[in-house]
Prior knowledge:
By secondary structure, the protein is α+β, with helices and mostly antiparallel strands. The chain folds into 2 domains: about 5-90 and about 180-240, no CATH class; about 100-175, no CATH class. The chain has helices at about 5-15, 20-30, 40, 45-60, 115-125, 130-140, 155, 160-175, 200-225, 230-235, 235-250; strands spanning about 65-70, 80-85, 100-105, 105-110, 140-145, 150, 180-185, 190-195. The strands form 3 sheets. Strands 3-4-5-6 form a 4-stranded antiparallel sheet. The protein has a two-stranded antiparallel ribbon with strand order 1-2. Strands 7-8 form a two-stranded antiparallel ribbon.
Amino acid sequence: MTVTGPAELLATWEAGLARQGGDRALLLHRAARPGAGADALLSVPPGERAADLFALRRALFGERMQITLDCADEDCAAAMEFELDAAGLGARPQVPEDGLRVAEGDWTVVFRLPSVADLTAVASLAAGAEEARRLLGARCARTARRGGRPATDEELAALPEAVLKRFAEAAERADPAAEVVLNIACPECGAATPAELDIAAYLWTELDVWARDVLLDVHLLASAYGWSEPQILALSPLRRRYYLELCADA
C-alpha cells in the first residue's frame, strides 16, 4: 500500500471533523485507496473496506492496537486494557464465483455479497431487524426460484426467514471481516465480554490524535524557524522531532 502523505491525511482529518459514522469511514477508505471514487468505494463488501482500513492502519501506526473496555458483568464492571496484535485481522472476502447459493425448502436463491451501499440503504429504510433482513435479501438476490419456477417480485420481497438466515450465514462465512467481535475474559472476575472492533472508528480516533500532535509540531516549528506548513510536513518525522528537541533546548 502507498501510504498517504501527511498533508493528505490532515486534509482527510479536517474534512472528517464535521462528519460522523459512515461518512468518516468513507473518507478513511478514500485515504486507503487514493483516486477511487465514492461509488467504487461504496460498492465493495464491508469486509473489503475493513481489510483496506486495517492495511492503512498498519502502514500508519503499526500492528499493535491498544484496546480498552469495561467488563460486561454489572457486578464487576472492571476497566480492562490490553494490547491486540492486528496482523491477522482484516481478511478479505472469499466469494464463490457463482455467488452465495442457498437452497431451503422449495426455494433456491443465489445471492451476491452485500456491499457497503446495500447496508447503508437498508439501515436508512428499515424500521426493524426483520424488515432489514428482508430488504437486504431482496437487494442482494441475483436469481430466485420457488418450486422450480422463477420467483415473482412479491415473493422475492417476502423471502422466508429460513432463507434469509441461510443467506446471513453464507455471507458471514464469505466475508468474516465484515464484523470483528472480540471476546475478552475479564482478569478480575473471568466473565467473557464481547466487543465489536470497529476499525473505522478506531482508526479515526488515532488519526485525530495524530493530526492534533502534528499541528502542534507545525505551530512550534513555524514559530521558531518561520517555516511554512508544507515545508514542515515535508520533513520526515525523525527530522521534525530533532528540530523540536533543538527548540526545547534553546
